[in-house]
Amino acid sequence: MIKGSVRGGHNYGVTGASGIVNEVTEDRKYYPLVIKGLMENGFDIQDVTPTRTSTIKQDLAHGVNLANSNGSSFFISCHLNSFNGSAKGCEVVYSSSSGKRLAECIVNELAQLGFYNRGAKQDTRGLYELRHTKMTAVIIEPFFCDNEEDVGIYRRVGIKGIADAIVKGVCTYYGKPIHNEAPKSTFKPLPLKMAYDSPAVFVRDGFMNIVKFFYRNDLITAKDEKLEYYLVDIDGIKAWIPKRATCPR
């Protein structure tokens, strides 16, 4: 069984970035799902997140020392990025050649969620977690917490979307099949036009949200179907439209 160490970035004593959302608040939501997903896929994972420390060095050393002592094959530190409000996208930072490959696998899955792919980034700052770990190690920055577009995508895909992408990236790196993954749809894109006016909607937190209003004779392409609805992609947002509101072109 492959052993790994995962931690949430920073802690409530040594806080991280703050923007539209707070880094520590959000990484504490998604990193446990990364651990859960990896364990469901046959990995032996240790949570090496500190609860609270007084200094940055104590915070960083806590996770690194535990990972180095438990025989882990890989180390993942979960963060959020921040800059000036205009920078956006996902990136994963690495130092070693094995870290580069793991970073590429993870960042490519995060980009599938709709984030701009900033790629696997080689560490040029001598980051503590990458310098002092003895195994393949990466620092994950799924999105910028001070960028409206990124936060919008995050709110759409949720913490599970972020975690699932990371888990899939790790499984890809190790050549492991993904368990509990939804079967791939065999639905082929279907060109349609609107038979009458209707909104395309998505449901979040129990509320129906209108993404776009389509009018009679507007052209659409269904990407999938579920019961009495077709799935359409609107600028990266997956929305549903009633089948009865459409007809063949």
From TrEMBL:
It comes from the Bacteria. GO terms for cellular component: outer membrane-bounded periplasmic space. Transmembrane segments: none annotated. It holds the Pfam family Amidase_3. GO terms for biological process: peptidoglycan catabolic process. GO terms for molecular function: N-acetylmuramoyl-L-alanine amidase activity. Residues 64-171 form the MurNAc-LAA domain. InterPro entries: MurNAc-LAA_cat, N-acetylmuramoyl_amidase_3. This is N-acetylmuramoyl-L-alanine amidase domain protein. It comes from Clostridium botulinum D str. 1873.
